[in-house]
């Protein structure tokens, strides 16, 4: 039995809230993966980075951060320290790559979307919640600026979501919370599209190396989890007015 009482193939309770989250951002989603809560906002700018000017292409990028009391002890804001940690930089680059994987940058035109993912409360899987919620915020932003005439079409070629899996006491399990993640023999983050395409996989053996068969078991759990997350994304978008 898992500490949470979940089955090995069971996600934590997932909610993707989009109504009344942020009145200023073009797109917003509060992603809750159990006790991990991430606020995702998408801001649209009618400009692109200098290296993309006059190319006709747009850009999607992301920033990620953990609020000072998102964990059981307070951590200083990275702005107060004067620099971002390597972990923060790695995660926000992952989020950006994941969102660009399902965006047609030529169809977007010379428009940039910044997706900010702020961890309000952390209990494992903050990057996967950020990617999953970030996609919803991005899709809403595209919808709203299309209605304003800034873009002519929705430049999405699919959905993207992410989930963690790991070996806990030798058993492959889906969607690790902090207790499981901190004690897993191996863990991996899977980023996939709704059509089953692989965007990125991050996998690590924390103790001894794990076998290919064990990796494939994690992959199958991830595929099933991503299917459920993409369905939750579609439901959240369909239920959001405007």
Automatic annotation (TrEMBL):
Residues 10-141, 159-224 form the Exoribonuclease phosphorolytic domain. Keywords: Nucleotidyltransferase, RNA-binding, rRNA processing, Transferase, tRNA processing, tRNA-binding. GO terms for biological process: rRNA 3'-end processing; rRNA catabolic process; tRNA processing. SUPFAM superfamilies: Ribonuclease PH domain 2-like, Ribosomal protein S5 domain 2-like. It comes from the Bacteria. Phosphate binds at residues 87, 125-127. It is an enzyme of class 2 (transferase). GO terms for molecular function: 3'-5'-RNA exonuclease activity; tRNA binding; tRNA nucleotidyltransferase activity. It catalyses: tRNA(n+1) + phosphate = tRNA(n) + a ribonucleoside 5'-diphosphate. Its EC number is 2.7.7.56. Phosphorolytic 3'-5' exoribonuclease that plays an important role in tRNA 3'-end maturation. Removes nucleotide residues following the 3'-CCA terminus of tRNAs; can also add nucleotides to the ends of RNA molecules by using nucleoside diphosphates as substrates, but this may not be physiologically important. Probably plays a role in initiation of 16S rRNA degradation (leading to ribosome degradation) during starvation. Belongs to the RNase PH family. This is Ribonuclease PH. It comes from Roseospira navarrensis. The lineage of its organism: Bacteria, Pseudomonadati, Pseudomonadota, Alphaproteobacteria, Rhodospirillales.
